[in-house]
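Help needed: design a sequence for this.
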């Protein structure tokens, strides 16, 4: 086991400051993800304007809110646009996305508890980039091969829980 900076195990894409004049309720345009949309996994606000492809996110992408509660959740809807104060965290090759989700969630809650605020808590890119996670390399030794079966079982359970969570969220719409 070792400690790794988040940027060693994941790439981070920060959202763009889209012009709110172009926000619309017209669902023929792409959804735009704001902080309030992260937990529910979908948006009813759309963007009628030009944008770069680098700000498109897809179902399953891990999104992190940088204001208020520092939530991290997989996006549960169709493709959308990554708005300011929201970032996408993508596991690098060889890093388990589910592990990243749970490890980062724990660290974010620790940061949230320590962060002072006047009205709204803010998470800076510098703080995100320097988050440290306990990292366990799957190829380090034979003992880890035994643990791999356990991790796969846990991963399968997490996937089932996420599927149930998706169904419950959709029935609440």
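Sure. Designed sequence:
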């Amino acid at each position: 086991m070792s400690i790794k900076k988040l940027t060693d195990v994941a790439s981070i894409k920060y959202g763009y400051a889209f012009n709110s004049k172009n926000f619309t309720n017209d669902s023929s345009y792409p959804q735009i993800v704001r902080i309030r949309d992260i937990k529910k996994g979908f948006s009813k606000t759309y963007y009628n304007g030009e944008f770069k492809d680098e700000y498109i996110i897809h179902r399953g992408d891990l999104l992190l809110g940088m204001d208020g509660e520092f939530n991290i959740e997989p996006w549960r809807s169709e493709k959308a646009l990554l708005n300011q104060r929201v970032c996408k965290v993508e596991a690098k090759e060889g890093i388990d996305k589910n592990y990243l989700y749970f490890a980062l969630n724990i660290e974010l809650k620790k940061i949230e508890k320590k962060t002072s605020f006047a009205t709204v808590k803010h998470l800076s890119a510098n703080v995100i980039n320097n988050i440290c996670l306990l990292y366990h390399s799957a190829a380090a030794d034979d003992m880890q091969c035994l643990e791999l079966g356990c991790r796969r079982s846990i991963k399968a359970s997490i996937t089932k829980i996420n599927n149930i969570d998706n169904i419950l969220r959709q029935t609440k719409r």
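The mean pLDDT is 87.
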